[in-house]
Design brief:
Helices cover about 45% and strands about 10% of the residues. The chain is α/β, with parallel strands linked by helices. The strands form four sheets. A seven-stranded mixed β-sheet has the order 2-10-7-1-6-4-5. The protein has a two-stranded parallel sheet with strand order 3-11. Strands 8-9 form a two-stranded antiparallel ribbon. The longest helix has 27 residues, at about 110-140.
């Protein structure tokens, strides 16, 4: 049976996506196809040809289908999101629910570009099938079993050798699409290890009992909030009128220089809920969760999440906040968790506000849907206040202006949701911290990008919109009266540089929790605070001067 077409087909499907790497310098194919990624693909293709020869057409076309699927995923994620298939993309896929799948198809899959891309893929598959049948009928070439065995041994050695060379960085660049997928799936072992370590650390945490007069703390985590579409941060449209009023009344401190260490919710949650810091290589702190510390100090902790609920998957469920899903960890961190999700944040808050803790020495953690794309589905019809005519952007067409308007409507609705949450605690001795997990690009720079990119070569325009986040602290009247020094320190800190990975230390300071693992130098409201090196995308240093120099094309 002629294997040439099959060999070339497999080779290209595995090799070509290696050229999508954004951090290798050269974007052209030649250096990549002649590198380790190409060598890997050659050996893998030889193994697949031998399998197809001895195990038949079902195996042959099965392997081809898997490779084609990986090729489609890598090509699409690269074109649409600027990244190859990696553990972040896999995590996002695993944490996606039915509602988000529908919105994804609505936003991306049914676009003209995507449909054209799919047509090309189908046409390519059909051409491969016809050529394979044609060559099979016209030519035949059989190698002997001894030669096949030699090829198999050489190929297996070649695969392991190329992987070793690639891992050691001896010959750049290089990981073909199959190896990249295998590497991404290996993160499961890491997650299982994380959970085991967190469970061990729960029993080791030692803290002092906090003052019973400690305030009620509310932590609200928003979603996909581009601060440059907030009137609190100078946006032309009145997207935050209610919060602006609270700022004028000296209830709300709005911080000017806060970033997120990640533009993905799952990674950001790991930073915020643990003591892990983006500027430290100390991995031991990633397994210490701040809600468990609060409970050990005497706080009652409630967790209300409108995106994800605790599932029965246990150690095998690696969706967002997977590290709090097992019963042992969840019970150590929370006194109460919600089990219902609602389409909009407003009804979600109304449904659960009766479950919120309101007494001193309590904490409510609330994760809302915010402005998560597609923003059209984040607000009810009654909040469709802005339309395309309100977006004064000559560089955008009608459809794009309407998308911006949809996003601004979602920000306006989020303003109402946040005001409703605050109203739940106005009569208590309460302090509320609100921030977004990350930002979003809403056609804010000259590239006119909508959404987020996950590559490591993002320009400062993207970093500014995706990583800079709104951050604010609200103080009730009773809190202002009973904690005058704290109240003053909060408002004095609004212009200090901060990263959301250090929020646990801010919370410890507010609750006056003391332990060997707390650190006052990382609390933005503490007089001992020292600004830390802020990173985004793990290896990119956030440079405020460069960020401030970027001119956003919002008129």
């Amino acid at each position: 049976m002629q294997q040439t077409v099959y060999f070339i087909f497999c080779l290209l499907l595995m090799s070509v996506p290696a050229s999508y790497e954004g951090n290798i310098g050269a974007r052209d194919f030649a250096p990549v196809l002649m590198s380790i990624a190409g060598v890997q693909s050659v050996f893998f293709s030889l193994i697949f040809c031998l399998l197809a020869k001895y195990l038949g057409k079902i195996v042959k076309y099965g392997i081809a289908f898997i490779l084609l699927l990986l090729f489609i995923i890598e090509t699409y994620t690269y074109i649409q999101f600027g990244s190859r298939f990696n553990s972040l993309i896999l995590s996002l896929l695993l944490q996606t629910n039915i509602q988000e799948i529908k919105e994804f198809f609505s936003l991306y899959i049914f676009s003209p570009f995507t449909l054209f891309f799919l047509i090309l893929i189908i046409a390519g598959c059909y051409l491969f099938y016809k050529l394979d049948i044609y060559w099979d009928k016209k030519y035949s070439f059989q190698t002997g079993k001894i030669i096949d065995m030699i090829i198999l041994v050489i190929s297996i050695v070649g695969v392991y050798g190329s992987i070793y060379i690639s891992e050691e960085g001896m010959v750049p660049p290089g990981k073909n699409t199959l190896y990249k997928a295998m590497e991404s799936w290996s993160f499961y072992d890491e997650k299982r290890y994380d959970i085991e370590e967190i469970e061990k650390n729960i029993n080791l945490i030692k803290v002092e009992k906090t003052n019973q007069k400690a305030p009620l703390i509310v932590l609200v985590i928003g979603e996909s909030f581009n601060k440059y579409h907030s009137s609190l941060y100078g946006y032309d449209l009145k997207t935050n009128p209610l919060l602006e009023k609270r700022k004028e009344n000296k209830e709300l401190a709005v911080f000017s220089d806060v970033i997120s260490p990640s533009n993905g919710t799952n990674y950001m949650m790991e930073y915020v809920f643990s003591l892990k810091s983006c500027d430290s290589k100390d991995e031991s702190k990633r397994n210490i969760l701040f809600p468990a510390i609060f409970r050990k100090s005497g706080y009652r902790v409630g967790y209300f999440d409108n995106q994800y609920t605790q599932t029965s998957g246990g150690n095998y469920d690696f969706t967002c906040c997977y590290f709090m899903n097992t019963h042992k960890i969840s019970n150590a961190c929370f006194d109460y968790r919600n089990d219902t999700l609602l389409n909009y944040d407003g009804p979600f808050i109304d449904y659960y506000k009766g479950k919120f803790y309101r007494e001193p020495c309590s904490m409510n953690i609330i994760h809302i849907y915010g402005q998560h794309l597609d923003p059209r589905f984040r607000y009810p019809e009654s909040f469709a206040f802005f339309s395309a005519k309100d977006i004064q952007r000559k560089d955008l067409n009608e459809v794009q202006r309407q998308k911006v308007a949809d996003y601004d409507n979602a920000v306006l609705y989020n303003d109402k949701v946040m005001d409703d949450i605050i109203k739940c605690f106005e009569q208590q001795d309460a302090v509320l911290i609100y921030f977004s997990d990350h930002g979003e690009q809403i056609y804010d720079d000259k590239r006119l990008v909508y959404g987020r990119k996950f590559g490591n070569d993002e320009p400062m325009e993207a970093i500014k919109c995706e990583y800079e986040i709104p951050f604010m602290i609200w103080c009730s009247r009773r809190f202002q009266q009973q904690h005058k020094e704290l109240y003053q320190r909060i408002f004095e800190a609004v212009d200090k540089p901060f990263c959301s990975d250090d929020i646990p230390y801010l919370l410890f300071d507010l609750a006056d929790i003391r332990s060997s693992i707390t650190d006052s130098t990382r609390s933005i409201i503490n007089s001992a605070f020292k600004p830390c090196l802020r990173k985004v995308m793990d290896d990119v240093i956030y440079d405020k001067k460069k960020a401030d120099a970027v001119k956003l094309l919002i008129e």
